[in-house]
Amino acid sequence: MKTTPAAFLSVLALSLLASCGAGAAGTYAVDEAELRKAMMTGLTDEERSKPETAKLMDEMLNGMDITFDLQADGTATLRVKMVVAGQRSDDSKQRTWKLDGERLTITRKLDKTLKEEGRTVDYKDGSFTMEEEVRGRQVMLTFKKR
After folding, report:
1. Fewer CB in a 10 Å sphere around the end CB: N or C, the chain?
2. Nearest Cα to Cα of residue 23 among 95, 100, 79, 93
3. What is the per-residue pLDDT across 41-82, written as a single tens digit (0 to 9) for each?
4. Which residues contact 145 (CB under 8 A, 6 or more apart)?
5. Which residues pair with 80 in a beta bridge?
6. Cα(80)–Cα(130) distance, integer angstroms
7. What does pTM read for this prediction?
């Protein structure tokens, strides 16, 4: 049986996609209830008791959209859009990803050194949780597939 270069390349591309965990490809949105809980935990009792803190928190969370786009080619984009004190910000960061069974590894290049840093987290039922920096604070974010 004779194989053509196109057939060989098609099989190679499919096997590469399968090794990335292409079934996990898609857009994931942050679980807002989990984010609210994590952010409230980070506040002091005094901060939680102030009405203006709750108002600012509501404004920030209502204007927030955090997504992770995992592309079938193994690239990823973390996008953070938010409004705080009337100021809009929109930030995106490039990553790569790989799924091995139920373990998702997301790799980023560190800003100053360009050294790669990978984090591996559990991936289950279209969801994963990882620590990310949001407005200068480390926060645990749970992402769910849309």
Report:
1. N
2. 100
3. 878 899 889 988 888 788 778 888 999 999 999 999 999 998
4. 24, 26, 27, 28, 126, 127
5. 66, 91
6. 14
7. 0.74
